[in-house]
Automatic annotation (TrEMBL):
<dbReference type="InterPro" id="IPR027589">
    <property type="entry name" value="Choice_anch_B"/>
</dbReference>
<feature type="signal peptide">
    <location>
        <begin position="1"/>
        <end position="18"/>
    </location>
</feature>
<dbReference type="Pfam" id="PF18962">
    <property type="entry name" value="Por_Secre_tail"/>
</dbReference>
<dbReference type="InterPro" id="IPR026444">
    <property type="entry name" value="Secre_tail"/>
</dbReference>
<feature type="domain" description="Secretion system C-terminal sorting">
    <location>
        <begin position="400"/>
        <end position="465"/>
    </location>
</feature>
<keyword id="KW-0732">Signal</keyword>
<protein>
    <submittedName>
        <fullName>Choice-of-anchor B family protein</fullName>
    </submittedName>
</protein>
Length: 469
């Protein structure tokens, strides 16, 4: 969000909601397509009046997954290994004052946190401490602190090199402020680049894209208010500006992310919807020649909402789109100028207008398929692909009742004999495997299943959702 935008009107609920499938276009009160709601933790639970950024950490020791969410007054840590029953482990309070803006990135099992709050600097938190929380939720303390800058809008980390890039500080004209974090508990100033305008957000990579001139170099792709800024930051003592990319109807170049082949840079302009009346607009740059980035095409969605943070995973672009929630776009044909929305989960039902409420950010990089959405007004959402990626049969000879069920569920058919029933939990794990011969009806004992949502796969062809209560 742009630094000088007014505070949004906030909504706080005292309830925590869990596991609701996306059926007929809604998951409870939330419009959706192809994404089930696993759970939601409200701002009230976190003891805050606003949400902002989010990121994630997977413990290399045991594979547990943790959501990290920025709040107005600190940073929350949540174990989402079981996405239906997330555990709020605790909060690291802000270093100074509360702020609308907070940003988190992770390197080497440490979280690095910045904020627009005056004098905040960069907090460092040892994430391995989350393994031994005994009395959740705890109030954590930071493990280290970097005070080479005060307020900071955003933080970028190149995990391959162990350097952090703080952007939007009062140093280097708001351009990237380099910090060596190879020893996370002893961050060290490493220079900066102040020759190309204020930087709002960025991505930094060891370049392995199509431009052979820069192979193996550390390249900074900045979203710099009115331009895309490409900088070679390999030599921290001598960063070199490579080029700028411009596009039409610029209002505020906010954030961007590279496709995995490094050929395209997908960016959003945060204020063009309200300034020019576009629907949600995404600009795709061809950066195959880093010396000459050019607009490849623009994509305009059906919604009026303002786009915020977007990330690429494979052939999908995950876009937090404020009042329109999370939108997932297929970019497999981006070369031919085509993108198409395939799934969505709207965390702000009732309006998709161009206002600063709703989904601030998304973290789609968990191996399990868990997707974290941080919402300004409604807290932390965990969603994932509709169970097993299967759609419930609209026409089927099989009936399932009662549903929800508690101890026994009956599966029956007037036509097709039951041969096999497989039951899968929300993680896609098979928890029951039953075989039958010449039967049209069976009572299935589900008394040992935990409360939640399951999928029954019948005769390897028909899928039915089952709620166990």
């Amino acid at each position: 969000m742009k630094r000088f935008l007014p505070l949004v009107t906030l909504f706080i609920s005292s309830f925590v909601f869990a596991q609701t499938p996306c059926i007929n276009g809604t998951a409870g009160q939330y419009p959706c397509e192809g994404l089930d709601l696993m759970s939601r933790i409200t701002l009230n639970t976190f003891g805050s009046d606003r949400g902002n950024d989010s990121w994630g950490w997977t413990d290399p020791q045991d594979g547990k997954e943790y959501a990290i969410m920025g709040l107005g007054n600190g940073t929350a840590f949540v174990d989402i290994t079981d996405p239906v029953n997330p555990i709020y482990l605790g909060k690291l309070p802000t270093h100074t004052d509360s702020s609308t803006w907070r940003d988190i990135k992770v390197y080497n099992n440490y979280a690095f946190i910045v904020s627009e709050a005056s004098g905040h600097g960069m907090q460092v938190f040892d994430l391995t401490r989350l393994r031994s929380v005994s009395n959740a939720p705890e109030t954590f303390t930071e493990d280290a602190h970097y005070n080479g800058f005060g307020h900071c809008h955003n933080l970028v980390i190149n995990e391959e090199t162990g350097f952090a890039y703080a952007v939007g500080t009062s140093t280097f004209g708001g351009g990237p402020h380099f910090v060596n974090i190879q020893n996370p508990l002893s961050p060290t100033a490493a220079g900066g680049f102040g020759s190309d305008n204020y930087c709002h957000d960025a991505q930094v990579v060891i370049y392995d894209g199509p431009d052979a001139d820069y192979a193996g170099r550390e390249i900074f792709f900045g979203s710099n208010e009115d331009r895309v800024s490409i900088v070679d930051v390999t030599d921290k003592n001598n960063p070199i500006g490579i080029s700028n990319g411009f596009y039409g109807s610029i209002e505020y170049t906010h954030q961007g992310w590279l496709t995995e082949d490094k050929r395209y840079f997908i960016i959003g302009d945060e204020l063009d919807e309200s300034a020019f009346g576009f629907n949600t607009r995404t600009i795709i740059f061809d950066v195959s020649d880093l010396d000459n980035p050019v607009v490849h095409f623009e994509y305009e969605a059906d919604q009026e909402a303002i786009d915020h943070n977007g990330y690429v995973l494979g052939n999908d672009f995950y876009l937090s789109s404020y009042r329109a929630g999370l939108r997932i776009l297929d970019i497999s044909d981006i070369e031919n100028g085509n993108m198409a929305e395939t799934k969505y989960f709207d965390t702000y039902p009732g309006s998709d207008s161009a206002n600063f409420d709703g989904a601030w950010s998304v973290y789609p990089f968990f191996a399990s398929g868990n997707i974290v959405i941080s919402d300004i007004n409604r807290g932390l959402f965990i969603v994932r692909d509709a169970l097993l990626g299967l759609n419930e049969a609209t026409v089927s000879s099989f009936a399932l009742y009662p549903n929800p069920a508690k101890n026994i569920v009956t599966v029956s058919s007037k036509i097709d004999p039951l041969e096999k029933i497989e039951v899968f939990n929300v993680l896609g794990q098979k928890v029951m495997d039953l075989n039958f011969v010449n039967t049209l009806s069976e009572n299935i004992d589900i008394s040992k299943l935990q409360t939640g949502m399951y999928v029954l796969k019948i005769n390897a062809s028909t899928t039915k959702r089952l709620l166990v209560d």
